[in-house]
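Usage

Read records sequentially. Each one opens with the input sequence:
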Amino acid sequence: MKLSIAIPTIFAASGAFWLIFASGPKSDIKSRIASARDRASTTARLAEIGKDQPRDFEAFRTRQLAISAISGLISFALVLIAGRPPVFALLLSSLLAVSAYIWVDRDLSKKVKEQRRLIDDEFPAVIEMYSLAISAGETPLVAMERIASSASGSLAREFTAVVAQVKKGKAFHLALDEMSRGVESLLIRRFVDSLIIATLRGTPLADVLQRHTEEARQVQRNRVMGVAAKAEISMMVPVVFLILPISILFALWPSLTNLNLFTGA
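and closes with the structure output:
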């Protein structure tokens, strides 16, 4: 009886989804995705991980909806097969569908945070290479192009985008400002502001870049010390709650054994 209810339900839901995505409502769904309220924020987050094409948002949102729908459908079918009431199955499947939808969004935010961390970690080495190239007599654009072609990483890809925009006719300082706005990093923002000001005013870049190199190294050192302090606290948990009680037990066990023997005698 359970299978006789669950199997037709699965086929009916599958047919409904096929009709939705294969006929007229498909265009309506695409239009709703395109006019989503969080399109701007989601597009900005996708751009930070390299997905800056217009179709990337639609692909991400379609994948998000598909995972949510499939999770809800599978959970609904499994709960019906288990013999639970349809109302309970509907509530549980709805909860799982919403959870899957939120999980995909959180996964995107996690990737964005990881991307920002990688850029901050790469910044000291890249800015030092840039400072050496400027000190050797190269122009800011040529030095940035050299780093973009020789280095690898997230920040090098951002430099590549800046060089490509300048070659298309965009002003160097405008391309730099657009890069800093796309990358949510305080270090990049300060570096770009100083580079733009020094370029427009004719200030020597070597001293400016040297200060930023020292600042970036100091920030990286502080970050490493903070991670080490958190790791030290985490290491205390097994010591306090596992190793220390076992050590005390080994120290007290002979005395407790002798005391039991004395009491029994």
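Summary fields computed downstream for this record:
- The two ends are 68 Å apart (CA to CA).
- Residues 205-264 form the longest helix (60 residues).
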